[in-house]
């Protein structure tokens, strides 16, 4: 509560206590219901089982497809729909790994904190060179002889989406967009450009 | 047997396909730091983590990188698996917490709810600091409670070490230091032995915090605290976010049930001490 912002992960240490207190109430209700007869006891037990099953269904949805699962507003923004989520980067890195020929080179015009998302911890395919991280208003290196790929992401505020990729296209002739990986519920995302 | 089944369910939700989700920005930072320390000697590894993550404690990325090297897996998977291990451990500790607060039935149900909790699963499938910190904090509480109950010094030391570890994982865990006095006050305020044990338990997180802040890491951590601290300036937005999170992650009336559980537990008012006199039926007497 004293923090500038408080996403749900900050409260994670409280979750075992909330679960335990809810369990105390559920067991108390079941025991009281059983004292009123087996039918009441069975109904109370079934209701508690339904709560657990409902929780399991929600969690299964989170694991299977987080982008359509029920998340709090701030978590939905952080993990799925806004710039921190990381959607699109791995797709862009995989697209280049899958299609770049050995004489290709890659330029990154991205948030410099995006390194694992772009597989900087893994080698590029044999013969493919990285030309490093560039600023959007710098012209991409024209001296490279083979195919040149450029990965561009949207700004953190993503307003308007595509602003940075238009900057790159304006600064360097001959590039064209070959893939766009938008975040869920957003036009902003990651682009792959190619020249020639 | 039932608890083992709950642990398996907790593990299934947390370990299933760890590469499935995109890389959240914080995961990217921790994992890049972990990648830097892979195959590096210890001192160099620590220096590299400090360069990459100047505002965080370095231990989890160091562990993450070491595990990745040992298991020959990529550092992102390593970080996510560590969180999953911590989440499964927290599920078992939640059983212990429920048993201490009530009985084994409550413990089992509490562990089941934690195993299936969407908010826990959400964060214990990502390479973040929170899952490991949560396990260490809850471990300190459960072990500390046992120490006060049994008047056992080795358990108090173990609780202190777990509290110290939690602070090394994430600095706000220093609040764990408030737990031993609370347990001591609830158990018996006149019991000198328990007061001593509470002091031992408190010393862990407090000494860990002081050591961190006095170390070369202290400046970066202070910057981070300064950056995040906004004394009540974001109070209402944070209250709104908390309400939203409670409604989303504790559906089907679980949040009101937790409030009811607090009332039920408060009405019973058992102190956290197994040495309280028991009635002839063996049931613990309340203090009310």
How many helix segments of chain A?
Answer: 5
Question: Structural class of the secondary elements of chain B?
Answer: mainly alpha
- Uncertain parts of chain A: none
Domain unit count of chain A: 2
Relevant terms:
heterodimer; A: 196 residues; alpha/beta; 2 domains; 5 strands; 15% strand; B: 288 residues; mainly alpha; 14 helices; 72% helix
Q: What does the model show?
A:
The complex is a heterodimer of chains A (196) and B (288). Helix content of chain A is 39%, strand content 15%. Chain A is of the alpha/beta class and 196 residues long. Chain A has 2 domains: 8-64; 83-195. Chain A has a 5-stranded mixed sheet with strand order 2-1-3-5-4, with helices on both faces. In chain A, strand 4 and strand 5 form a beta hairpin. The model of chain A has no long low-confidence stretch (mean pLDDT 89). Chain B has 288 residues and is mainly alpha-helical. Chain B has one domain (2-224). Chain B is built from 14 helices and no strands. The two termini of chain B are 36 Å apart. Mean pLDDT of chain B is 85; it is low at 273-288.
Layout of SSEs?
The complex is a heterodimer of chains A (196) and B (288).
Chain A (H helix, E strand, L loop, with lengths): L14 H21 L2 H27 L8 H9 L7 H11 L5 E5 L19 E5 L14 E6 L9 H9 L4 E7 L6 E7 L1
Parallel strand pairs in A: 1-2, 1-3
Antiparallel strand pairs in A: 3-5, 4-5
Chain B lengths: L1 H14 L9 H13 L4 H11 L6 H13 L3 H27 L2 H13 L1 H6 L6 H21 L2 H17 L9 H9 L4 H23 L3 H11 L6 H15 L4 H15 L20
